[in-house]
Specification:
By secondary structure, the chain is mostly beta strands. The chain contains 1 helix and 8 strands, in the order βββββαβββ. The protein has one helix spanning about 60-75, and strands spanning about 1-10, 10-20, 30-35, 40-45, 50-55, 85-90, 95-100, 100-110. It has an 8-stranded antiparallel sheet, with helices on one face. The chain starts with a strand and ends in a 19-residue tail after the last strand.
Length: about 130
Protein backbone atom coordinates (compact mmCIF):
# COMPACT_ATOMS: atom_id res chain seq x y z
CA UNK A 1 0.00 0.00 0.00
CA UNK A 2 1.14 3.51 -0.67
CA UNK A 3 0.19 6.07 1.95
CA UNK A 4 0.38 9.85 1.93
CA UNK A 5 0.35 11.67 5.20
CA UNK A 6 0.62 15.06 6.78
CA UNK A 7 2.36 14.97 10.14
CA UNK A 8 1.70 17.96 12.39
CA UNK A 9 4.11 18.39 15.31
CA UNK A 10 3.79 21.46 17.54
CA UNK A 11 2.12 23.43 14.75
CA UNK A 12 4.63 22.47 12.02
CA UNK A 13 3.46 20.30 9.12
CA UNK A 14 5.51 17.73 7.24
CA UNK A 15 4.39 15.86 4.12
CA UNK A 16 5.42 12.18 4.12
CA UNK A 17 4.97 9.06 2.03
CA UNK A 18 4.69 5.59 3.45
CA UNK A 19 4.92 2.16 1.91
CA UNK A 20 3.24 -0.60 3.92
CA UNK A 21 3.60 -4.32 3.23
CA UNK A 22 1.97 -7.24 5.04
CA UNK A 23 3.51 -10.70 5.17
CA UNK A 24 1.58 -13.92 4.67
CA UNK A 25 1.65 -14.31 8.48
CA UNK A 26 0.43 -10.71 8.98
CA UNK A 27 3.73 -9.13 9.95
CA UNK A 28 4.01 -5.47 8.90
CA UNK A 29 6.77 -3.46 7.26
CA UNK A 30 6.65 0.32 6.88
CA UNK A 31 9.09 2.52 4.99
CA UNK A 32 8.57 6.27 5.52
CA UNK A 33 10.06 8.65 2.98
CA UNK A 34 10.16 12.36 2.48
CA UNK A 35 8.82 13.81 -0.78
CA UNK A 36 12.16 13.54 -2.58
CA UNK A 37 12.36 9.82 -1.76
CA UNK A 38 14.93 9.77 1.04
CA UNK A 39 14.12 7.05 3.61
CA UNK A 40 13.44 8.53 7.06
CA UNK A 41 12.29 5.38 8.83
CA UNK A 42 12.10 1.67 8.11
CA UNK A 43 10.34 -0.47 10.70
CA UNK A 44 9.35 -4.13 10.89
CA UNK A 45 6.59 -5.39 13.20
CA UNK A 46 6.63 -9.17 13.55
CA UNK A 47 3.49 -11.24 13.98
CA UNK A 48 4.22 -11.59 17.71
CA UNK A 49 4.28 -7.78 18.07
CA UNK A 50 8.06 -7.39 18.37
CA UNK A 51 9.39 -4.26 16.67
CA UNK A 52 12.66 -3.87 14.76
CA UNK A 53 13.85 -0.43 13.67
CA UNK A 54 15.84 -1.15 10.53
CA UNK A 55 16.61 2.49 9.76
CA UNK A 56 15.91 5.91 11.20
CA UNK A 57 17.13 9.34 10.15
CA UNK A 58 16.42 12.80 11.51
CA UNK A 59 13.92 14.00 12.42
CA UNK A 60 12.95 10.47 13.52
CA UNK A 61 15.03 9.06 16.36
CA UNK A 62 15.11 5.25 16.78
CA UNK A 63 13.13 5.44 20.04
CA UNK A 64 10.45 7.56 18.37
CA UNK A 65 10.18 5.04 15.51
CA UNK A 66 9.99 2.19 18.04
CA UNK A 67 7.42 3.82 20.33
CA UNK A 68 5.21 5.87 18.03
CA UNK A 69 5.58 4.97 14.35
CA UNK A 70 5.36 1.23 15.10
CA UNK A 71 2.38 1.81 17.42
CA UNK A 72 0.59 3.85 14.75
CA UNK A 73 1.34 1.17 12.16
CA UNK A 74 -0.25 -1.44 14.43
CA UNK A 75 -3.24 0.85 15.12
CA UNK A 76 -4.13 1.26 11.47
CA UNK A 77 -3.00 -1.99 9.84
CA UNK A 78 -2.88 -4.73 12.49
CA UNK A 79 -5.58 -7.36 12.67
CA UNK A 80 -5.60 -6.87 16.46
CA UNK A 81 -4.86 -3.20 17.29
CA UNK A 82 -3.84 -2.28 20.83
CA UNK A 83 -6.33 -0.80 23.28
CA UNK A 84 -4.38 2.49 23.36
CA UNK A 85 -5.07 3.24 19.73
CA UNK A 86 -6.04 6.88 19.06
CA UNK A 87 -7.13 6.36 15.45
CA UNK A 88 -10.23 7.81 13.84
CA UNK A 89 -11.32 5.92 10.73
CA UNK A 90 -12.92 8.52 8.48
CA UNK A 91 -13.25 6.10 5.56
CA UNK A 92 -11.61 2.82 4.51
CA UNK A 93 -8.74 4.87 3.05
CA UNK A 94 -8.58 7.89 5.40
CA UNK A 95 -7.30 7.81 8.99
CA UNK A 96 -6.46 10.41 11.62
CA UNK A 97 -4.11 9.53 14.47
CA UNK A 98 -3.91 12.10 17.23
CA UNK A 99 -1.55 11.78 20.16
CA UNK A 100 -0.45 14.34 22.72
CA UNK A 101 2.47 15.72 20.67
CA UNK A 102 1.40 15.11 17.10
CA UNK A 103 -1.37 14.49 14.61
CA UNK A 104 -1.10 12.32 11.50
CA UNK A 105 -3.62 12.66 8.67
CA UNK A 106 -3.12 9.51 6.58
CA UNK A 107 -4.66 8.44 3.26
CA UNK A 108 -4.19 5.30 1.20
CA UNK A 109 -3.50 6.26 -2.41
CA UNK A 110 -2.60 2.91 -3.98
CA UNK A 111 -2.95 -0.79 -3.15
CA UNK A 112 -1.05 -3.51 -4.98
CA UNK A 113 -2.15 -6.96 -3.82
CA UNK A 114 0.18 -9.91 -4.02
CA UNK A 115 2.60 -12.04 -2.07
CA UNK A 116 5.54 -10.17 -0.57
CA UNK A 117 9.04 -11.72 -0.47
CA UNK A 118 9.73 -13.45 2.88
CA UNK A 119 13.13 -11.75 3.29
CA UNK A 120 11.32 -8.42 3.48
CA UNK A 121 10.06 -9.52 6.92
CA UNK A 122 13.31 -11.04 8.20
CA UNK A 123 15.08 -8.78 10.68
CA UNK A 124 18.26 -10.91 10.47
CA UNK A 125 18.67 -9.98 6.82
CA UNK A 126 18.12 -6.34 7.69
CA UNK A 127 14.81 -6.46 5.89
CA UNK A 128 16.57 -6.08 2.55
CA UNK A 129 14.23 -5.45 -0.35
Amino acid sequence: MTQRGVLTVRGRQFSLNGYVARSATHGLRLIVTENLGSVLADVLVKTNGSVFVLKSRPPFQPAWVQNYIAADLKCVFSDVPSTNCPVQVLSPIHFIIERRWYKLDLRTVDVKPGVQPAQMFDEMQGGKL
